[in-house]
Amino acid sequence: DYLALIPSTLMVLAPVLPYVPQVITMQKEHSSAGFSPYVCLVLLIANILRICFWYGKRFGLELLFQSFIMTAAQILMLFIWFSFRTPRIGRPRTAAAKFWNWDHFVTFVMYIAAFAGVMGSITLLLSGYNAYVETIGFISLLIESFLGAPQAISNFQRRSTAGMSLGMIGGWFLGDGFKTIWFIYKGEPFQFLMCGIIQLSFDVLILIQVLLYRH
């Protein structure tokens, strides 16, 4: 039944769609100042860990495919952000300030590949230990829960939402609502439901920032 595939297809593809308006905004303004690259970092770490979680504890294939597609989409999103970012003046004073703010895109890719390789290797070794599997599942979804945090912090620091696509945030809200309902309907592990609820809370916070900083 092809109609039965529609919800599953939406579950796989819909989470990447909110980033299309943000890409359009960055290309239109030739600037990525309104978008926090730490959003990409959060999603990359969360989805790589979720793939490891699936290896140790099988859940819906839709969520596994979603993780692969989101990982690829965030690498592309990071590249677009990097292409339009404002050139840095001077060098960061600390290692923490330099992290995820490198001068060459290949450094980002190397970090992502190294993280995926290390976590994949550890998971292959420890996948038989339930405590490890449940822990990476919890960490993965806890990190993803705070997806909106970097954007909310960036908005607060700048006292502005200029350059941030309202379409992206609206897409987050609708997508997170759909995901949360899906988790309940499919009886996915509790970690997923917790993730959806926290994400919706951050979506609402950012929408409030849009109202507060609209002038």
From TrEMBL:
Which Pfam families does the annotation name? PQ-loop
Q: Which GO terms describe its cellular component?
A: cytosol; endosome; membrane; trans-Golgi network
Instruction: Supply the SMART domains for this chain.
Output: CTNS
The membrane-topology field of this record reads: Multi-pass membrane protein
- Give the record's keywords alphabetically: Membrane, Transmembrane, Transmembrane helix
Q: Which GO terms describe its biological process?
A: phospholipid translocation; retrograde transport, endosome to Golgi
Where it sits in the cell: the answer is:
Membrane
- Is Oxidoreductase one of the keywords? no
Q: Give TM regions.
A: 6-26, 38-57, 63-84, 105-129, 165-185, 191-213
- The question of whether Transmembrane is a record keyword is answered with yes
Q: Which domain of life is it from?
A: Eukaryota
Protein's UniProt name: PQ-loop repeat-containing protein 1
To which species is this protein native? Vannella robusta
